[in-house]
């Protein structure tokens, strides 16, 4: 089987809107020290608006969520009626350049396995960030446990004729294709930014499994 036979990414995320639990933690104390309350903030790949809700609860007034899943956006609007949410197409963002002081990208790169697509997204997020603005990324490096290594290896053994892929890409049991990343790739992807802070921590995946994550505080 190749990735071509799978449901589209938006279908997968629409189907996941009611069931998956997202929990990559935001270091709100550091965020409050770093980002003023009147900052314009974009949460890209906002899902059901979990982080937008957390920011609003901490007094941030100009918070915008964007996602390419209509079901996620519908749930976000229901759960956080005071926040502005926008359905995007996953390509060019509907915002002017230098519109935001901070952008959050939590557990979204993992959903976008190809290098070129990740590069295009990060370039687009840089475009909409003000100069000196903050890009806060939370995502998965390669994991070292047997279950994940078996998934990476299984994907490696399949035929992939249609698109380039990286080790660490794998299929979820319910149909999505996601990626965990070699650390040097992150360094390459974020090369246009200045790394202000980087931390590794324990987290839980959307299917309830323990995982290591890495979080970057990057300056445009
Ligand atoms: C694992 S969930 C994380 C949701 C949220 N960031 C959180 O941490 O609560 C990933 C989200 O990214 C969205 N997503 C995946 N690829 C995307 C793309 N190319 N453009 C916009 N949203 C995308 C999915 O629809 C989903 O809502």
Question: Could you explain the architecture of this structure?
Answer:
The protein is of the alpha/beta class and 220 residues long. The protein has helices spanning 9-16, 28-34, 50-57, 70-79, 115-128, 146-157, 183-189; strands at residues 40-44, 62-67, 84-87, 100-106, 129-139, 169-171, 177-179, 194-204, 210-219. It has one domain (3-219): Rossmann fold (3-Layer(aba) Sandwich), CATH 3.40.50.150. Helices cover 30% and strands 27% of the residues. The strands form two sheets. It has a seven-stranded mixed β-sheet. The relative contact order is 0.17. S-adenosylmethionine (SAM) is lined by residues 9, 13, 22, 24, 45-47, 50-51, 67-69, 72, 88, 90, 106-108, 111-112, 206.
Could you list some keywords that capture this structure?
220 residues; alpha/beta; Rossmann fold; seven-stranded mixed beta sheet; two-stranded antiparallel sheet; 7 helices; 9 strands; 27% strand; globular; disordered N terminus; binds S-adenosylmethionine
